Amino acid sequence: KMTQQMRDLQLAQARKPPGPSSPNAAKRLYRNLSGKFRVNYTSFDEGSLVGRGEKEKLRKSYLFQSNAALFEAVELQDLDRVQEMLKHYSPEELDLNTPNSEGLLPLDIAIMTNNAPIARALLQAGAKESPHFVSLESRSLHLSTLVREAEQRVNELMAQVVNEAPNADCSEKEKQLKAWEWRFRLYKRMKAGFEHARVPDAPSSVHLSVASSSSLQVTFWEPLSVNSAVVTKYKVEWSCSPTFSPLLGEAVIDKLKDLHFTIEGLVSGTAYHIRVSAYNMKGWGPPQASMPPFAIPSNWREYDGRAPRRRGQAEALDHLLGQVKTVHQHCICHEPCRNQPQSRKHSVSKSLKHLFHPGSKFLKTLKRGLYLTAIFYKDDNILVTHEDQIPVVEIDDTYSCLLMQDFLWLTKVSCMWDEILWLRQCVTVSQSSCSCILQTRFKMLLAISQMQGLLGIQDLGQVFFEPIKDKQGNILIVTLKEVKTNQTFESVRWVPICKLQTSRKSVSSPEEPTALDMLLISVQDKLAYHQRSSHALSPGLYLGYLKLCSAVDQIRVLVPEQLPNILCHVKIRSNPNISREEWEWLQKMASVEEPVTTEPETDRSQNPLFQELHVAIKELMTLVNIPLQEAKDFRLYSQEVLDFGDQVSFLLLLPPSDDVCTAPGQNNPYTPRSGFLTLPLQIFELGEER
């Protein structure tokens, strides 16, 4: 079969331009090819081509050229070019796993020439070995055939060149001879690489951790030896017996971008032994047992059978809200509110069609009072009225001092933008008490309804954690919402923020700016806060630092500016699960009231969690500018692990009980470095829920 393939190749060579006459010539050919296919692929669809058949031919030609260029780059051991092609083109565009006429794939050439960097780059991109090599014997026979037939072709061409008189045909034969001599040397090098290779060593390290009450996570590292061929896959095996007899299961990992595997469907409370072995073109190497040698699937809740704190909370709140609505069935707007989401099926462009009409009630300037403004932004643009004003409506022109309780109430209302009409009616019914607080909150609901009606949008976004106050007695409550759709709006225009800032004519002095001027000056900071508050942590177990400070009317919590919806924290490890055994150890620490930074020397090497916590505490103390010796009086919160979904969990580090919350006027000797802010506790809780 291989002989017939080579004959077909020879016939094809006679009909097409000759191959590269030397490595340099091959490199030139490759660069020409790679230059040709480095075009915008979408250009084939721009109307310059006539007919689908011609487009398909060009597409196939594009794929052929890219595939040929990749083979040339691998054969020439041009790592930079291989990486560039893998970066800019998909495996499908490169035809990465389609064998050439010799039955080889790019990965085969890389591993048999023992070019580890190129082989690793190909493996990261999803390259496979040729399916033709089902055994060591078949690979050896295949390589021997390639070498023998390449040598035969070299001898034939050499005889023709020697016997023929110098002419144009002779010059072509010399080029072919040089190309085949170069290919003959390549095949011999591949054959020698295969013959001198040996099976891989065991993985250098295998780490086993408990991922949940029914799964284990295995993380492993490639063998340290560089004398064997490139590893192309790994095998994970598990058993309840240390002898691995019987074997309960195995999994082959051939996607080597991340060397880890999660074994799922295990029985809680059962010990499992794990081992991992590596594979290369010479076969499977010896297995490496995990550290620790076994693990038991479990979760910290199994320690006392505790149910998740938030289980059923969302359902209970929905039920409670339903009961409240049932009591207020007489409200005339209850039914319209229920059907309101259907009216929101209008496109955003239609709902904003009448936005900022000259007859609207948006304000241009502020007088002494309480106001609401809504900022809608997309990238670096902000939505403004036809008069280049940020939309502002009045809440109360006689309100000179915003109580923190009213502001915090409004932030909770922001979780129910769709229920504003119903809330208005309910508050109206309750106004018989003539409460000043209810009157203020009713005016807030009126202003929200007015803003929603003028904008044609129900969701006004997230309330900024701090109102803007100026010396003229104005108080401005700000909501922020990012618009992610790429739609055009009628009668509305997006204005670059920098342009709005420079074109607005201030009516106040620099010494005493109005609330609107202060908003424009700080709008980028507010948008940055809004974007950061929606960021999520990567999966893992974290150590959080809880620090509060109290004022007359509120308690504030210390958070990082980069993630204001999360406590100050450092990452302990990527595995978010705390096993039952680890939780028992933490409970033991808490019961003996030992400092968190001390532990008997024998436990240091046997307890990975202790080592991880020790490193995390040092990092966290440095982050918040607290001397490490002060940490000896700190303690871990041992009542529960804070779970945020299935992928993120927190252990809390608490200062001494007297220092958890700093009272007004109390001196805090250890102030955090820059990059932190304090949020009202209720705002932080809402951000955490979002």
What characteristics describe this protein?
alpha+beta; Serine Threonine Protein Phosphatase 5, Tetratricopeptide repeat; Nucleoside Triphosphate Pyrophosphohydrolase; 4 domains; 22 helices
CATH class of the largest domain: Alpha Beta
Structural class: alpha+beta
Cα distance, first to last residue? 64 Å
Number of strands: 24
Q: Total helix count?
A: 22
User: Architecture of the largest domain in CATH?
Assistant: Alpha-Beta Complex
Rounded to the nearest angstrom, the radius of gyration is 35 Å
Percentage of residues in DSSP E strands: 15-25%
What overall geometry do the principal axes of the alpha carbons give?
Answer: extended
User: Helical content, roughly?
Assistant: 40-55%
- Main beta sheet, described? 7 strands, mixed
Overall number of domains: 4
**Average pLDDT rating:** 80
Contiguous uncertain segments of 5+ residues: 1-50, 333-351, 353-359
CATH topology-level fold name of the largest domain: Nucleoside Triphosphate Pyrophosphohydrolase
